């Protein structure tokens, strides 16, 4: 048990701000195209945080050209440069899969005060 904890502590490297499901975040991540590298920003709502330890992930959903796009980011990925929390959402669930069926104003999340 201690060995597993030791290995996971070595693997975890990204210091990300505290965020939960329902928060609107901007994820800055590195994209390598051939020999060039650039930073791309992916902004959307966190619909889930999954797992714990070294293989922890979070899923961010955004609507682009009226099509819902979801992307799963590993928390400990070296390609994630930073995560900014734009707004906190007031939600009562930890997994927001119901947003997939909603469109327009119904898909809004109230901001936490």
From TrEMBL:
Gene Ontology CC terms, in alphabetical order: cytosolic large ribosomal subunit
InterPro entries: Ribosomal_bL19 (IPR001857), Ribosomal_bL19_CS (IPR018257), Ribosomal_bL19_sf (IPR038657), Translation_prot_SH3-like_sf (IPR008991)
Origin: domain of life: Bacteria
Claim: Chaperone is one of the keywords in the record: no
SUPFAM superfamilies (alphabetical): Translation proteins SH3-like domain
A GO biological process held by the record: translation
One Pfam family of this chain: Ribosomal_L19
Keywords: Ribonucleoprotein, Ribosomal protein
GO terms, molecular function: structural constituent of ribosome
Family to which the UniProt record says this protein belongs: Belongs to the bacterial ribosomal protein bL19 family.
NCBIfam families xrefs: rplS_bact (TIGR01024)
Known function: This protein is located at the 30S-50S ribosomal subunit interface and may play a role in the structure and function of the aminoacyl-tRNA binding site.
Name of protein: Large ribosomal subunit protein bL19
Organism, as annotated: Anseongella ginsenosidimutans
Annotated gene: rplS
């Amino acid at each position: 048990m201690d060995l597993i904890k030791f290995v996971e502590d070595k693997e975890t490297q990204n210091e990300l701000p505290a965020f939960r499901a329902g928060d609107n975040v901007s994820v800055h991540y590195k994209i390598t195209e051939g020999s060039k590298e650039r930073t791309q920003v992916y902004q959307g709502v966190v619909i889930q945080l999954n797992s714990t330890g070294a293989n922890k992930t979070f899923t961010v959903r955004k609507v682009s050209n009226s099509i819902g796009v979801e992307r799963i980011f590993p928390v400990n990925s070296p390609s994630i440069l930073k995560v900014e929390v734009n707004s906190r959402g007031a939600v009562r669930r930890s997994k927001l899969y119901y947003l997939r069926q909603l469109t327009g104003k119904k898909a809004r999340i109230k901001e936490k005060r």
